[in-house]
């Protein structure tokens, strides 16, 4: 039944009702009969305009909604898929690939899945805070099994939806507890979703200097100056390891300087840890900055993701934690985190959390996973070395002025090449090599089969640019 037909139907129904004769035998009171007549008259008057409305066209309330901007990475993937060239290369992929360019499921993950299947688990809702056993092993993974903050029960933690969901829960918590005027400083550059997440929480998002384009390394002086200049009590988002997109991490001595200045200015520290174990191949080493800040006395917030290091990209497994002053405070903070989670997604997913818990709680499986994660990190490191060596071998005596040392000085799956937007465009149009215009490449897309082709193309666009100077 169409909208106009429906209106006519209801209008006729009420008109028919109003015109029905009264059955006086059912009424014993004259006043009651008068009231019924009055009500019928009112109904007729109320619904008679519906006939006039029947011919008015009904339009969608969404007709003026504008098209949202396309996702940059998705656009690159679409262009890559449309390219029919056999030797095309996608260097934008944000997931690990083997030397043949194929996705990888770690053997330890497969083994954990078999264990879970044999346990015949049900599919009931998880608690709002997630699986308690998963949260426990996640916190030990980040803070250390013997961490004082865990022994004293002063960490509020709950399972969340990978990195994005973890960041959003904390962002909502900040907005509610400290107000939307709270300033959140993110590194320049940073993972693109950081800014969108915090802005959608209503927070005041700002940037601090981080990457130095000329040195292709850390702009420590600029970073420290921005920390000093920021309003006391601001939030500073830090990448725990393998900074995305630059691959530039502070040294331990630089981390100490950053920590002490943040503490001196009474800023709040929020760590985003998406690559623990996946950066250096050692999960303990990759957690160094987090633990150093705890030792210095920071009350940090932490967002953990298990997408990259466990290869559980589609399972959306993460953990949120805030370090508090005591157990009672942690309990209050957790109650607020649960309220934020409840309003967003109610309950986190079970399957991936069970996998991570099974691995981290079993010494044998944990050791196996550590070796497998180390293998992934090693391949990335080796591809960095190979790409740099291949590029430098081409430039010997060629007169090109580009330096490629930064490729091996950076860490993690992403590398900031230093290539310009025009050079990136040429690489796509002439050489069928695709990655974002900011020059960030995923080292996971480099392998022994395509590294020579990539180096040839990079050399071609940089040598030509140098010759024009």
Provide a quick synopsis of the model:
This protein is α/β, with parallel strands linked by helices.
Describe what you observe in this structure.
The protein is built from 20 helices and 13 strands. The strands form 4 sheets. The chain has a 7-stranded mixed beta sheet, with helices on both faces. The chain is an alpha/beta fold. It folds into 3 domains: 51 residues; 131 residues, Alpha-Beta Complex (Aspartate Aminotransferase, domain 1); 255 residues, Type I PLP-dependent aspartate aminotransferase-like (Major domain) (Aspartate Aminotransferase, domain 2). The model has no long low-confidence stretch (mean pLDDT 91).
Strand order of the largest sheet: 2-10-9-8-7-3-4
Any idea how many domains?
A: 3
Low-confidence stretches: none
Task: Name the CATH homologous superfamily of the largest domain.
Answer: Type I PLP-dependent aspartate aminotransferase-like (Major domain)
Shape: globular
Number of strands: 13
Count up the helices. 20
**Structural class of the secondary structure composition?**
alpha/beta
Q: Roughly how many Å is the radius of gyration?
A: 30 Å
Q: How helix-rich are the residues, as a percent range? A: 40-55%
Distance between the termini: 72 Å
């Amino acid at each position: 039944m169409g909208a106009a037909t429906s209106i006519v139907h209801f209008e006729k129904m009420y008109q028919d009702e109003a015109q029905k004769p009264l059955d006086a035998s059912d009424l014993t009171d004259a006043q009651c009969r008068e009231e019924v007549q009055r009500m019928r008259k009112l109904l007729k008057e109320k619904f008679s305009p519906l006939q006039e409305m029947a011919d008015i066209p009904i339009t969608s309330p969404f007709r003026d909604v504008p098209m949202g901007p396309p996702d940059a990475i998705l656009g690159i993937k679409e262009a890559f898929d449309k390219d029919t060239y056999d030797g095309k290369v996608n260097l934008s992929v944000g997931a690990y690939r083997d030397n043949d360019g194929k996705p990888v499921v770690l053997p330890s993950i497969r083994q954990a899945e078999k264990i879970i299947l044999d346990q015949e688990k049900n599919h009931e809702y998880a608690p709002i805070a997630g699986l308690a056993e998963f949260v426990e092993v996640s916190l030990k993974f980040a803070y250390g099994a013997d961490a004082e903050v865990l022994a004293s029960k002063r960490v509020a933690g709950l399972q969340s939806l990978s990195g994005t969901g973890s960041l959003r829960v904390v962002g909502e918590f900040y907005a509610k507890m400290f107000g939307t005027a709270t300033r959140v400083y993110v590194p320049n550059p940073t993972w693109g979703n950081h800014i969108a997440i915090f802005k959608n929480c209503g927070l005041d998002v700002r940037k601090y200097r981080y990457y130095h384009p000329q040195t292709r390394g850390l702009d420590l002086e600029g970073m420290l100056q921005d920390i000093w200049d920021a309003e006391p009590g601001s939030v500073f988002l830090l990448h725990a390891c393998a900074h995305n997109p630059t691959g530039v991490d502070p040294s331990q001595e630089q981390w100490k300087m950053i920590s002490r200045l943040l503490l001196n200015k009474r800023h709040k520290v929020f760590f985003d840890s998406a690559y623990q174990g996946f950066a250096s191949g050692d999960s303990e080493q990759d957690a160094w900055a987090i633990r150093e800040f705890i030792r210095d006395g920071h009350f940090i917030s932490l967002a953990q993701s298990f997408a990259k290091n466990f290869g559980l990209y589609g399972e959306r497994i993460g953990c949120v934690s805030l370090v508090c002053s005591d157990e009672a405070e942690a309990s209050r903070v957790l109650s607020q985190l649960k309220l934020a989670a409840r309003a967003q997604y109610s309950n986190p997913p079970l399957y991936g959390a069970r996998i991570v818990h099974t691995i981290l709680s079993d010494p044998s499986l944990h050791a196996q996973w550590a070796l497998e994660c180390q293998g992934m990190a090693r391949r990335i490191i080796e591809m960095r070395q190979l790409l740099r060596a291949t590029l430098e071998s081409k430039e010997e005596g060629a007169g090109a002025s580009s330096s490629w040392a930064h490729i091996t000085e950076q860490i993690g799956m992403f590398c900031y090449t230093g290539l310009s937007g025009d050079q990136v465009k040429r690489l796509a149009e002439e050489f069928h090599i695709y990655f974002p215009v900011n020059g960030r490449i995923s080292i996971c897309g480099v392998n022994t089969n395509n590294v020579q082709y990539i180096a040839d193309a990079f050399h071609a666009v940089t040598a030509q640019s140098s010759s024009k100077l």
